[in-house]
Amino acid sequence: MRRDVRILLLGEAQVGKTSLILSLVGEEFPEEVPARAEEITIPADVTPEKVPTHIVDYSESEQTDAELQDEIHKANVVCVVYDVSEEATIEKIRTKWIPLVNGRTGSGPRVPIILVGNKSDLRPGSSMEAVLPIMSQFPEIETCVECSAKHLRNISELFYYAQKAVLHPTAPLYDPETKQLRPKCAQALTRIFRLSDQDLDNCLSDEELNAFQKSCFGHPLAPQALEDVKRVVCKNVPGGVQDDRLTLDGFLFLNTLFIQRGRHETTWAILRRFGYSDMLELTTDYLFPPLHVPAGCSTELNHLGYQFVQQVFEKHDQDGDGALSLEELQNLFSVFPVAPWGPELPHTVRTDSGRLPLHGYLCQWTLVTYLDVQHCLEYLGYLGYPSLCEQESQAQAITVTREKRLDQEKGQTQRNVLMCKVVGAQGVGKSSFLQAFLGHSLGHQDTRPFSQGSPVYAIDTVQVNGQEKYLILCEVGTDSLLATSPDAACDVACLMFDGSDPTSFLYCASVYKRHYMDGQTPCLFVSSKADLPEDIWLTQSCTPPPGSGGCW
After folding, report:
1. pLDDT digits over 289-328, tens only?
2. Edge-to-edge strand ranges of the sheet holding 241-242
3. How far is Cα 169 from Cα 329, in angstroms, rounded to an integer?
4. 3-state DSSP helix/strand/coil percent for the chain, to nearest 5?
């Protein structure tokens, strides 16, 4: 939502633009009216929407056309003022002022307009009959307010509607010509409906509706209010309520009804609670809330994060078999713009006959959180974590560990996710080692496409001193660690060589000497292909064995 509102008043001379501003500020009709009022700013704490509001007057006699165009460009909303007792000023709305405001915008977004009929004290009855055809012709007109600067009638209301047109605009939500929600609005509300449908029955029960209501507005609906809502839907939408539960069609109808009745702030409250901007796109602030991760620290899901992603799993495990089928996984990803996990999944976590069990699912979330916490925050945002968990942001689902250096100094760690880099020359069996870690046999070939030189990962749980920890294996070529600026940091290094190939051991020895021999990282030398004959060279190697931080 915008942080301030800029309102510009336009109209013919003598219609009372300046008097309206001065009557609002002074709370009385001014005896002397200047040609143009100075720009005024109303503080946030005295406006209904709690947003600073700037009100700008216009005088044709004091300002040039260039200055007028500049003011129109800066305005968030334009109030076109006319004199209800002068029909000529009404006609100028259509022929002069609206074309002046939006005549150059083409098919792009238009500045919202409020029609203001001033001097209602000079005319019995209403001018709405003359104004309605104009409102029908120009969809950017939000509403029309008749007022009297002299009698202080509807002055506050007109500026409230002007604020509302900016902070809760109709145009992105609703097409007045078709009288339907715009496609992007319907798409956003459909995503919100799916997130709120906790049992995936394509309906919202009373319990789900109240959880949704509490998340968006802070309190549940009274039982009678719930019944009234469903009664209105039943009366207007066939199939809008099924088995006493609200369907998607009924949910979309309710939001359409809010907008048609001038309560579009209700729909905007729903959209903004679930992270949408005025352009009906998820905001960067929503998807990527601030999270400071100091150097040497890592990121993990905390109990809130694991609880949430497990609830998402159980929600989509429709057959209750403890694993997500491809169809169930696609359904889970339906609230994402694109599927976040691809064909590499079976080679990264444990799967079961093409299905993703809960264990593998939690491992994948753990891996994403550790490697790229920004992606984790984004994914939790798509799944509606802040709204469904009633948290300020998904950053509450993340724990930032203490610096690794402190762990090493104290000789203990509270981290639950550990990184092991598996280093070795090409052909020593690193990929097979990673797949064996996931329980795959040698015949399980890793055929996934990946960029040459990019790291390959596998993750599973292991027992460490009676505690379950997540262990990430990262396959790294020796060439990359012998580069100019390698990233050798890890919790343990696994230096793998082919027991029948002395050259592969020399690669490992070079990496060990360069990165790990003088450090505190534990190292494990692993001789692969033990089924092949081992040469005598291994026992005669001049490379000193690892110290207390490593082993053969």
Report:
1. 999 999 989 999 999 999 999 999 999 999 999 999 999 9
2. 203-204, 245-247, 241-242
3. 36
4. 40, 20, 40
